[in-house]
Amino acid sequence: DADVTQTPRNRITKTGKRIMLECSQTKGHDRMYWYRQDPGLGLRLIYYSFDVKDINKGEISDGYSVSRQAQAKFSLSLESAIPNQTALYFCATSDPIDEKLFFGSGTQLSVL
Amino acid sequence: QKEVEQDPGPLSVPEGAIVSLNCTYSNSAFQYFMWYRQYSRKGPELLMYTYSSGNKEDGRFTAQVDKSSKYISLFIRDSQPSDSATYLCATLYNNNDMRFGAGTRLTVKP
Q: Measured between CB atoms, does B104 come within 8 Å of chain A?
């Protein structure tokens, strides 16, 4: 079983729709992250959470929100999806001792 | 100017070649330097992790950091077709914000 699981793997939606991407982890890490990956731009941080009561904005948080439902669960929402949010989204966890990131397999999101 | 610059390639080499992948960064406050490998339709996985200037070896892989010139490199010796992937350099900006390069796509041909 994967340590960091993302659902769904693929999602196609229309402009203006609200969607949620989900992430769960079995690594026991307190720290969780959401990144998006675009060709030529690499990975960019959207939001991160150091524990259940902690939520922080990353480099590109506009248009996104997150919810940390439990230590193991961190979801990303697009309140009103727009085409330039079409990207590959990754959830990750890290160990605070060395900050090494462990990624899920990603969700490919297409907004039409 | 992006904080971490990386040539996106693509880079194609024959099996057995030595591969050199490079990144430059702009902020001298970066302290930790990493290389991630990403196979198609997979999440990135940590390959190398260094803190100080100099070289760090792990099998066929060597990570090199030159803080004076803000330059980081990954060398792959005796490259194999299984090394075909996208390689992402990354720097740790502070305790919670890692900055990534755009990634270099590498193909190793048998």
A: no
Q: Quote the tokens at residue A60.
A: 């590109």
Structure tokens at B39: 């196979």
Q: Across the interface, do B88 and A101 touch by the CB < 8 Å criterion?
A: no
Instruction: Determine whether the interchain pair A43/B45 forms a contact, defined as Cβ–Cβ distance below 8 Å.
Output: no
DSSP B41: T
Tens digit of each residue's pLDDT (9 = 90 or more) over A35-68: 999 988 889 999 999 999 999 999 899 999 999 9
Indicate the DSSP class of residue B60.
T
- Residue B79's φ and ψ, nearest 5 degrees, are -60, 145
Convert the pLDDT of each residue in B38-60 to its tens digit.
999 899 999 998 887 889 999 99
Can you read off the two tokens belonging to residue A15? Answer: 């402009």
Q: What is the DSSP letter of B53?
A: S
The residue written with tokens 């990975």 in the block is A43
